[in-house]
Amino acid sequence: MSRLLLMMGAVLLSACDARPPVAPPSAGSEAGLEVLFPVRVGMMAIHLRLATTELEKARGLMGTLQLKEGEGMAFFYEADQQMSFWMKDTPLDLDIAFVAADGKILEIKTMTASDTETTASTSSQVRLAVEMSAHWFKRSGIKVGDRLNPDDLRRGLTARGFVATRYIP
What we know:
single chain, alpha+beta, 6-stranded mixed beta sheet
C-alpha cells in the first residue's frame, strides 16, 4: 500500500512540473525582424527589415555577408535627432541614408566594412536611417531629396506589432 502511495505521489509531482506545450505562432501574430517589407522610394520598390527595438538597432546588419539587390534595413527612432552608426562586425560596405520623419532623404553616406569609427548625420532632423549595399543609392538613381513612402513604412511597422505613429507621424 505504501508503495502505491509513493508511486502516486511521484506521478502527481511530475505532473505538476510538466510544461504545457508551446503553441505555434498564429497567422495573426506579429512579423519578426527577418521579414522584409516593401517600401517605395519614388517609383522604385525596395525591401527592408525594420529595426525598432534597442537590441535590433544595436545588432543591425552585423555578421551579414551579403545583401540581395534592393534589400536593406531601416532603423527607427521616436524623435528627430542627429544619428551616428558604425560598422563593427559588419563584413560588407554599406550606404546609409539619413531620413526625416516624412520620408525625405536628407543625406547619403558610404560606410566601410568593419570600421569602428562612427558615421554621423549632419542634420539633427533625422528620424530613421536606411542601410543598403554600398553605392546602391547611386546605382539606383536615388538621391538626397527623394522620399521613402511613409505609408509603406507605417504598414511595415504595424505588421511588426508596433504603433507606427510613434516613429512616422
